[in-house]
Amino acid sequence: MGRAFLLRLVGREDGTTVMNTFGRSFRFTSFGESHGAAIGGVVDGMPAGVPVDPAYVQRLMARRRPGQPGMTGASARQEADEVRFLSGIYEGRTLGTPVAFVMENRDARSADYAAMADSYRPSHADDTYDAKYGWRDARGGGRASARETAARVAAGALAQCFLETAGVKVYAYTEQIGAVRCGAPYAAYDLARVYDAPLYCPAPDAAAAMEAELKRCAAEGDTVGGCVRGVIRGLPKGCGEPVYDKLTARLAAAMMGINAARGFEVGMGFEAAAMHGSEHNDAWAGVDAQGVLRTECNLCGGVRGGISTGEDIWFRVAFKPIATLGRPVGLWHKQEGLRAQTVGGRHDVCCVPRAVPVVEAMAALTVADLLLAYRSRLPETGGGTVPAHR
Amino acid sequence: MGRAFLLRLVGREDGTTVMNTFGRSFRFTSFGESHGAAIGGVVDGMPAGVPVDPAYVQRLMARRRPGQPGMTGASARQEADEVRFLSGIYEGRTLGTPVAFVMENRDARSADYAAMADSYRPSHADDTYDAKYGWRDARGGGRASARETAARVAAGALAQCFLETAGVKVYAYTEQIGAVRCGAPYAAYDLARVYDAPLYCPAPDAAAAMEAELKRCAAEGDTVGGCVRGVIRGLPKGCGEPVYDKLTARLAAAMMGINAARGFEVGMGFEAAAMHGSEHNDAWAGVDAQGVLRTECNLCGGVRGGISTGEDIWFRVAFKPIATLGRPVGLWHKQEGLRAQTVGGRHDVCCVPRAVPVVEAMAALTVADLLLAYRSRLPETGGGTVPAHR
Amino acid sequence: MGRAFLLRLVGREDGTTVMNTFGRSFRFTSFGESHGAAIGGVVDGMPAGVPVDPAYVQRLMARRRPGQPGMTGASARQEADEVRFLSGIYEGRTLGTPVAFVMENRDARSADYAAMADSYRPSHADDTYDAKYGWRDARGGGRASARETAARVAAGALAQCFLETAGVKVYAYTEQIGAVRCGAPYAAYDLARVYDAPLYCPAPDAAAAMEAELKRCAAEGDTVGGCVRGVIRGLPKGCGEPVYDKLTARLAAAMMGINAARGFEVGMGFEAAAMHGSEHNDAWAGVDAQGVLRTECNLCGGVRGGISTGEDIWFRVAFKPIATLGRPVGLWHKQEGLRAQTVGGRHDVCCVPRAVPVVEAMAALTVADLLLAYRSRLPETGGGTVPAHR
Amino acid sequence: MGRAFLLRLVGREDGTTVMNTFGRSFRFTSFGESHGAAIGGVVDGMPAGVPVDPAYVQRLMARRRPGQPGMTGASARQEADEVRFLSGIYEGRTLGTPVAFVMENRDARSADYAAMADSYRPSHADDTYDAKYGWRDARGGGRASARETAARVAAGALAQCFLETAGVKVYAYTEQIGAVRCGAPYAAYDLARVYDAPLYCPAPDAAAAMEAELKRCAAEGDTVGGCVRGVIRGLPKGCGEPVYDKLTARLAAAMMGINAARGFEVGMGFEAAAMHGSEHNDAWAGVDAQGVLRTECNLCGGVRGGISTGEDIWFRVAFKPIATLGRPVGLWHKQEGLRAQTVGGRHDVCCVPRAVPVVEAMAALTVADLLLAYRSRLPETGGGTVPAHR
Fold first, then answer.
1. Are β-strands D284-287 and B119-120 bridged in parallel, bridged antiparallel, or unpaired?
2. What are the phi and psi torsion angles at B176 (to 5°)?
3. Which residue of B239, C307, D119, D174 could cross-link D331, Cys pair, CB 3.0 to 4.6 Å?
């Protein structure tokens, strides 16, 4: 074997999530309870020199806030979600040191929740937190509240600032609410304009039917589940580890770590279980202008053997209906046992539209981590090249 | 607030997978290529004093081997998968030091594969490995071969030896092959006898239909996908981290890290997306004889807020059809582009039955890791108790 | 072998430091530049139910502030170092969720430093930061400033709140400044009263000589190095991992991660190199009232084979002299090369007294992490017990 | 500020050691007891395409074996230490997949040690292992035996194969045995020829005096300590993390993780404590032909602010005398208490010469890890470049 050899660094897409820290190389640690002083986070591993525009971050924060156009039944809690950066950014660019940020909690009405300290709501984490920690901050769900996802969106915005410099784009949209689904695959929609659409659903007819479903639920004091579709574009071929730490495993963990997530699939997902190899195999389409070897249909979802193919990565996340209803439910009281009660507080009818920017953020954080590892590979030529095989 | 306080250690279900190491506290590192000298692994973090019976390990290995009853179309490769332990076990018990094991590769026919070094099979990891590493061992799929899963089963057997001492049981079975599904939920089946059933499918009628489907596929040179159901019993309430590192996130990563996995769901999974809160909420059923607070239907799948509830954890994994067909497919040759060819080698018609012990192994490894962290919590009474709140 | 077997969990003192996160189970992530908006940190993995008294934390913070009694030549920068807790504490006790804290930077005079952006001071990190990150925040040393150690002391205070509940105590004191050393071994001093002594040196005669040395240095515009002695009491026998992750390795990394640290030793340290086994071996003294097997002299420093022995752990850290002098030094200007200049800013003559609470903090963080892992072991009796050997 | 900005990835020298795994990106997991079936390890994260010559590995193994020229009193145990590679190498080059290797234990005389199961030798890890694990393999020290270091040398050889491609060299030598020290600083010696010198000591007169000291010890049944000097050349400027995860912290942990290590220092180390800033500061010497900004004396030891400077990294490790003497010592018997006894087995008089290749191996593993992280930084120009500051 006489051909020249190139020393190739192993992409070290190595690791993931530890307690309240997400990611290994691009690391995000969050903190905060729903009704504590503040929520926030620290992003460590942010490359140096990345432009960060606070107005851009604030724009992404706004997408997660309640009261967006068409979000029937949105929670009445009003937080500015104003992100204050404390470190790691100097003259508009990152220093490479940790970027810390804080959002003060202002509209926290603790009285609504105080009575809940000894009661367990059905399908909430009240009893499991008590089992794990021995007690909990019952105000507004404490650390289990979806308020924590505001910190995810802020960190995701930082990740997107980095991805922007690498030409990688992350998208998400509302694909399903209750029984209503978008009729077309993701490629049919203009993903760059999702946030202009009602309910962040790019299919106008589906969006209208979803709105009707939300209104019906609100009227009945009920809630409903749904699905978010995510798409990652521009990730270079070769990201991800092939065995336990597959790109698909990383993405699945990121998505299943979002509140209320119940399922994850990539490419054809569960439909693939009913398919034959002759249908599911991706026929080669040839090499495109950018040098990417393309398939006819990319049914694999942009990942082969746990490693990115250079084609779009597409995936889907299922969310259960919000557990807090606008009607009496059976609470379990620690001393008194079962009793029916209407739970106070302010809640949405469906988490899906507000989950769209959260899915986007978690995908951005995941991909930023993978991309850092990918870049640890040596360039095709240069100092690390190994001379021809002896 | 005058009640007594108990110091409670945070369960440190902290971390996951790094490249070829799975888990953090109960850590499994594997190695080996399909046609290299051997495959094997090292389990670090194994508690000391656990009895390990090599015959038990070998029994579990046998479940993953080809040629099981009813496995139509099974690959013809014959490996004894004899596990040789090199360290960490002394007088039949673990020492607490790393347990290393090796399985020699004996039935490796490299000539079948040598011609593939410059060709990329459709829906395989050939091209992505080349992109990531610059070259690959093309013999039998190298590291990407399902042969690697033999090491997972051996490590899973060690995890099960540990779980045995804690009363935790892990089960898996074939729930779907192609369009054929088991008709009943998991609770209808005797999970302890799954491996006595054809195709590891506990529903005899479904198993018969699956056999027919496999025969049809084999006759047509085709393959087919399917789903594995997993169930974890006896895990104490309070395992798992509530935010990014949820039990569901850990389990999802474990399952999506298995070759050919395309989707993961827990509890009602994707069906939950179409449900209303009034249907999906788990009504409280009361406290059972073991002191576990139970729900009527456990639709949440044994996890609330990322933390185990003490009820059964039930989940499902979707597998795509095997990509290697018994008929000509279009290969992409690095120099010559597309060309049709029949790929040699020995392959199954459906990976699902052989994936059953692999799902079980990965679930056991995940739960062993969680359980170690859970045990870092202080006992309810004792030295660490904090006196009554001041 | 017929004796009863006990299942013993492997203490998982597993892991350490990643970039700006210290520790694995008891994890501290810090952020902040010297002249940025704020410094602070997040402690994750803090056990739930630990009482945290903000006044106690503030008391520890005061020990690191400049202007302590007898600290000749202390820097003139005045920061209140007021710790504001943002999360993780509720009604005076920890929740088990991340504890975040912030200290605002108020007395930051950037003008003093602005001219330094293109100059490299000798024996500072100016050029290496530029090499690593491409640019830096030159104001007051940015992230490399000793100001960052304020966050360590705050996190260390939280660790000590936890250690308090376990009966573990951490001490440190000034043992050497320049050529002046304490005459007696640590056991001769009342470690609980170190912070009442001038320069945190418990030997009054040595302290007086150190003061004289500091005055002489201040008068000459010079600086001087020194050593801090650290002692850990009450750590149970059995903490630490025996091979790569020894207790001594963990402690060494913690100490060598402090600004200006140049050396670490445990027990007899470098003196052991010149000793014979017949001198250095620790003769057994017998079992004491608490059941600890004691040695005559504990020359091993409380660690055998990387694992704690239950006796005092004693170690020493060497610090180099502060590199900023009160006299002209040769700066390297990126464009112009070498030029002599007096560097502005406010600096100490010796870092050692202010390093004492930092050494204590890092030791507390290290031991808190080890103790969490230690507690993951099963109790001597109970559910996990394995029946007698077969 | 109008100058062009370059996006700079943060070098992610992130992480260290977990139980029996050393390093994060270049990860080495070892296994094996002294008298078990085999010892060995798995290196994960090895870059693909690195040439590995088994004869080179075997050559390095030979340096650690007993019976080297001049090693008076070397242990009589004779192991071939033949390294068998099981995976990760194909046609003489690494695949990027895990490289596993095994060395069988052949010359294991268990009978010598069997009587020790209930006795604790002084200054050994017998009692701490028992405390941690509940029992131990007492044969030959089990996992605590220095035999484990053979696996370190094999893994270090793999690391050196990688470093070779990057122009980084790692050296070590015997600097001190007992009271005898080399008279000159490291720069005076030809480091490439250390292994040709008796006792691996490059100063002939010191070596002769050391030999005499070893003979005297052997005659008296005593042992003696010593120091190893380590030097790393060619590591690029900018490796290491500046806060908790400093290059010095990583190196300290690596060295303190070696059996019998008692102290670590870098550059002037403990001597720096007695120096003034005006002496210790490194005056700039100017930029050399390779573009490295050099200092007059490099007293900092090649690290400023935790980050490599591009100059030589020089450090020292202190080892205590071997605890097993050739004369009766007091053993602690679990049932019977203290009793004097001569301990059998085969042992060296001084560990230092055999520790030289181990120090070298651990330095190589540390630096390989840092170098992988360093390479994750973007090249100075190219796709990731950020356009000029807005």
1. unpaired
2. -150, 135
3. D119
